[in-house]
Amino acid sequence: MNDRPTKGCQGCGCSDASREGGAIEGQPARRGFMVKLGAGLLGVGGLLTALPIVGYIIGPATKRFTNVWVDLGAVSVFPAGQTRFATFLNPIRQPTDGDSAKTACWVRCIEAGKFQVFAINCAHLGCPVRWFEQSKLFMCPCHGGVYYQDGSRAAGPPPRGLFEYQWKVDGGKLLIDAGRLPGLEESV
Amino acid sequence: MNCVRAGCCTVSLWCWMVGGGCERPHPEQHAAALSLDSPAAAQALFDSNCRGCHSQGAEGAALPLMNKNYWAIATDAVVVQAISHGQGRLMPAYIDSEGGPFTAQEIALFVKGMRSAWGAGAVGRGGGVSPLIVAGDPALGAQVFAESCASCHGSQGTAGSVTDQMYLRLVSDQGLWSSVIYGRCELGMPAWDDALPNRPSGLTVAEVAHVVSWISSQRVAAHDGSATP
Amino acid sequence: MKVLKASLGWIEERTGVVAFVAPLLFHHVPRNAKWWYVFGSATLMFFTIQLVTGVCLATVYAPSAAQAWESLNYIDNHVPMGWMLRALHGWSSNAMVVMMAIHMLQVFLHASYKYPRELNWITGVFLLLTTLALAFTGQVMRWDQDAYWGLGIGAAIADRIPLVGDEVRALLLGGPIIGGATLNRFFALHVFVLPGAAIALVGLHMVLIIKNGISEMPKPGAVVVPSMYRKEFEERMHKDGVPFVPDAAQRDMVFCGVCLIGLVALAAFYGPFGPGGMPDPTIIDTNPRPDYPFMWLFGAVSLLPPSSETAIMLIAPAVGVLILVALPFMSNSGERAPSKRPAMVLIALVTVMAIAALTWEGTTSSWSPVMNGWSSLPTPVKFVRGRTPLEMQGAVVFQFAQCRNCHSLDGLGGKRGPELDDVATRLSYDQLVRQVQQGGGNMPAYGKNLDSAQTAAVVAFLATLHPANEPDSRIPGAQLSVPTDNATAR
Questions:
Q1: Contact A94 C169 (CB under 8 A)
Q2: B210 or B188, greater pLDDT
Q3: Which of C159, C178, C371 is nearest residue A100 as measured by Cβ atoms?
Q4: Structural domain spans, chain A
Q5: Which of B148, C209, C355, C443 is most open to solvent, judged by the fewest CB atoms within 10 Å of its CB?
Q6: Distance between the two ends of chain C, CA-based, in angstroms?
Q7: What is the pLDDT of residue A3?
Q8: What digits encode the pLDDT tens for the residues B21-58?
Q9: Contact at CB, A97 and C65, closer than 8 angstroms
Q10: Using CB atoms within 10 A of its CB, is residue A97 exposed (0-12), middle (13-18) or buried (19+)?
Q11: Per-residue pLDDT at B7
């Protein structure tokens, strides 16, 4: 840039100033145009490329999953007055989930035909709570959350009672409305 | 030259480690690898599921299972029944169909394992007494109690009343039966065939039945509707 | 020799590699930079080991939720030297975190972050965050029960973010549940994104070290004056500095050598970390614990008061990072010597002690119930000897009702509630009944779960927990012993 223009100008006798002033018609204008065009094209192209990438990355946050009624088995395996462990395969599993698609819950049969189905996850930080039939308490091994048999908080750090699944009895089977990992925005 | 030698040593050591299959120093021992009816597995299961109440020696507040007397009297069927479906008000059911953690098969194997671990020395102190309660006559039992039990458990005794209503509401008749026949030797409570006051060779089978039925007859129904065993 | 020289010359002429590297190797560093300065090099060495062993492990590890756990067991038990590679990777990861922490502490105490090395510090802060992220994602790679429930804890914390908690959680997990998408997401972070970021940051950190030089040992009175510092520093280095190779590097080499041998010894002796139980969320007989670098956080979230824990969990990490980043801007001149900066020394001391204490708390987890305490911890002999039948039944009720999960007797049992060896010296009979039935003070109420006979028995037992030499709990009007009207036939 330092040498060439002077060399070039020896031939035509024009000065740097005249050159910048547009003596060689079109050159600077075209250069400015090319830069703008390049930036524009790159910007548009980059945006077009970035859209699917960003969409791919944030996809899981935007996709809405609806819970599905899952069969926990015949009502008769849940005797009245007792709380029993039950497992099911998560309805919104993926082919590569392996064992992690298995999900556990606690089914409390208050009386015949009346249930409470609790998520296994402690309302504090999600660890698996365990039911103790003798003291009629759920205890969490992580930070010591304790719940009564109706799922209400008894002691420890949980900010609320256990998460509950919606349930219904259909054709002698207990169904629950399961899917997403229960979290604090759960209504019950 | 030393360098070369050292290099050769290092390389050959490395080849030996890799090629010779240098094994992981502490392979994980999985409990599942043990057969459930082995004494070691039985001990492990006992330690995590039973030991809280059932004693080893003098410790523990409930019936001592690691007691040779126990394995001489209790049959496998009785032990399996108690573990599976619970016993009285304080022994929970351990079978999965009743909310417990084990299958029927696991419980059967566990009982076999416990017998092979602790039952081997079970010498004939069973003496023909049934592990399950047998009906007796309370009137005769009152006399047996007064003669052979009251010195400790009577109003003047130091071992505490066995007719305390709260106690009787917690203990089933089968539990009373077991207490009488097995005793807690380590804590000073004799077994049924140990020497007792006025009965140097212990109780007879019939006397056990009588005394248990008398203690049971002292139970008054709870006023507050709480469960009776 | 001649051929070697010629070929080196040939390469040098075309690449300029020697001309590029030589100033890096022989640049002058302070003469007094002694053993204090070896920790950064050790951190870098451990990072290199992580890269090499990590690539090796990736040749066998199956990054799929269905197979990851099995592939790790396969590496441990069937791949030649597989267990050793996993052990090296695991131990080196812990060592890297430790070395980095020591390095950071040294820089903090010596105030090496002051002018002109503010950006050295800031790149270091981001390296710390990247390393911790690598450690956490690495724990997920193990895909065992700890990994699964650790993710659950992460998800539950993300879930507490106001308004967008649900979306952040889905972004973290790659979907509405912890599953295959979660593992692959963390795998991509652990092997591509984070190592890439770490390499870039290490490069930047190195460039800054070369550009700004290594700081001298702090001397009281030798204040940093930004307008003069660089010129004076360069003069001092020129006059009094020593070449990095070999004068300073020899110490790095000795220290790194010792570290390496220590690493191999630890790895060979203790073997790899896990994998623990298989990642089946229906196996709930589990006791999830994080890896050591996060134990203090685990302890912290357990000890926070529930009313403020959400705010603290979400805000405190951000504030912490902000403070670290802002540090060189808050004080970038003046004294560097610890003796002239007592407040900073105190801050460092308190931080180290807090992290150590929280790590200890997290490891012992006194707030966690001993989940099988009730069924595995026997009543000690001294508490059953000489007890009445009712008191013995009470001792059984004490086990039966899982009291032992939270209360210890003779040192064994849960530490969540108070030890009960001498409870009868603190509470009278009536108070014991009330405490059992109504709970309170972080104890559940047992009133609905124990009937009158069970309550009477367990309180009768508790009332015996009274060492003979201790005075009674004297509450006016309170009943001190078991009421006799229960014992009709006594």
A1: no
A2: B210
A3: C178
A4: 4-62, 68-178
A5: C355
A6: 105
A7: 45
A8: 456 555 544 444 567 778 888 889 999 999 999 877 78
A9: yes
A10: buried
A11: 62
Chain A neighbors of C287, CB-CB under 8 A? 141
Interface of B with C in 38-57 (CB under 8 A): 47-53, 55-57
The CB-based long-range contact list for A156-160 (8 Å cut-off, 24+ gap) reads A156/A124, A156/C367, A156/C442, A157/A124, A157/C302, A157/C304, A157/C306, A157/C309, A158/A122, A158/A123, A158/A124, A158/C306, A159/A123, A159/A124, A159/A184, A159/C306, A159/C310, A160/A123, A160/A184
Contacts of C339 (CB under 8 A, 6+ apart): C220
Mean pLDDT of chain A: 84
Q: Are residues C399 and C379 in contact, defined by beta-carbon separation less than 8 angstroms?
A: yes
Q: Decide if domain B35-118 falls under CATH 1.10.760.10.
A: yes
Give me the pLDDT at residue B10, please. 60
B11 touches chain C (CB under 8 A): no
**Distances in Å between the alpha carbon of B87 and those of B163, C29, C259?**
20, 79, 59
What is the fold, at CATH topology level, of the domain defined by B138-217?
Answer: Cytochrome Bc1 Complex; Chain D, domain 2 (1.10.760)
Tens of pLDDT along B58-99? 888 888 777 767 888 888 999 999 999 998 889 999 998 888
Instruction: Tell me which residue in A96, A99, A155 faces C279 most closely, judged by beta carbons.
Output: A99
Give the bridge partners for A117, in sequence order: A107, A165
Residue C117, C-beta contacts closer than 8 angstroms, at least 6 positions apart: C208, C212, C215, C328
Contact criterion met (CB < 8 Å) for B48 and C376: yes
- Among B65, B68, B212, B49, smallest CA distance to B140 is for B212
**Sorting pLDDT into bands at 50, 70 and 90, what band is B224?**
low
Is residue B136 within 8 A of residue B208, CB to CB? The reply is yes
Q: What element of type H or E holds C429?
A: helix C429-438
What distance lies between CA B54 and its chain's CA centroid? 5
pLDDT for residue C67 is more than 50? yes
**Same CATH topology for B35-118 and B138-217?**
yes
Which chains touch B (3+ CB pairs under 8 A)? Answer: A, C
Measured between alpha carbons, how far apart are the two ends of chain A, in Å? 73
Interfacial B residues in 93-152 facing C (CB < 8 Å): none
Does residue C293 carry a pLDDT above 50?
yes
pLDDT band at C487 (very low <50, low <70, confident <90, very high): very low
Contacts of A83 in chain B (CB under 8 A): 99
**Each residue's pLDDT tens digit, B108-163:** 999 999 888 888 765 555 568 888 999 999 999 999 999 999 988 987 777 888 88
List CB contacts (< 8 A) between A156 and chain C: 367, 442
Residue C106: closest CA among C91, C82, C124: C124
Domains along chain C with CATH numbers: 15-364 (1.20.810.10), 373-486 (1.10.760.10)
| Closest C-alpha to B180, from B199, B165, B166 | B199
d(CA C144, CA C163): 31
Residue A52 pLDDT > 50: yes
What integer pLDDT is reported at residue C307 of this predicted model? 82
Domain topology for A68-178? Rieske Iron-sulfur Protein (2.102.10)
Domain boundary assignment for chain B: 35-118, 138-217
- Arithmetic mean of pLDDT, C262-284: 92
Q: Which of C35, C33, C34 is nearest to C259 (CA)?
A: C35
Question: Does residue A128 sit at the C interface (CB-CB below 8 Å)?
Answer: yes
- Residue B15 — pLDDT band, cuts 50, 70, 90? low
Please report the pLDDT score of residue A30 as a whole number: 77
β partners of residue C4: none
CA dist C152 to A25, A100, C131, C136, Å?
Answer: 68, 12, 21, 13
DSSP C150-185: HHHHHHHHHHTSTTTHHHHHHHHHTSSSSSHHHHHH
